[in-house]
Design a protein that fits this description.
- The chain contains four helices and six strands.
- By secondary structure, it is of the alpha+beta class.
- Strand 4 and strand 5 form a beta hairpin.
Length: about 150
């Protein structure tokens, strides 16, 4: 990991929208490299699948996701910012090599330190619900099961 210090823009609502839209909304593999300078070395990333500590581990996770996806898009619907961080609501559509495109709906909470770097990112999404909704024939069974046993 290159630890060269570069100047970064303040993470305003507009900057976040601009940076995150450059990551995904193009044909081909996602590229997060322009975001990495905004993450603190001690970053804690947590989502429905994993908890990762350290910027280097986060970069490796992003590389693994890019290798798995034929294409990945993220559409931001809401971005808010307060003194502690930012909240992003999104729809992420992943296109895999052999499976149909799979939209997932979720949100991210970014905690931003006084230096303007992201020290934690918590992503919230329903991985299995969104994936199972796209499996023909299984969708009804999955929704019946969830309703019967959880609600």
């Amino acid at each position: 990991m290159d630890n060269t210090k570069i100047d970064i823009l303040p993470l305003t609502v507009e900057t976040i929208k601009d940076l995150w839209s450059k990551t995904y909304n193009t044909k081909g593999k996602p590229d997060w490299s322009h975001l990495y300078p905004y993450y603190d070395e001690g970053l804690i990333f947590h989502d429905s699948i994993q908890r990762i500590e350290g910027k280097d581990e986060f970069v490796r996770m992003c590389d693994r996701l890019a290798k798995r996806c034929k294409e990945l898009r993220m559409d931001l619907s809401v971005v808010t910012r307060d003194e502690e961080g930012a909240f992003l609501e999104w729809k992420m559509t992943m296109m895999f090599r052999v499976f149909p495109s799979t939209p997932m709906y979720g949100a991210s909470r970014l905690t931003i330190n006084k230096e303007g770097l992201i020290v934690s990112q918590r992503d919230y999404y329903d991985l299995w619900g969104d994936i199972n909704n796209n499996v023909p024939g299984y969708r009804k069974l999955y929704r019946w099961f969830m309703h019967k046993f959880f609600g």
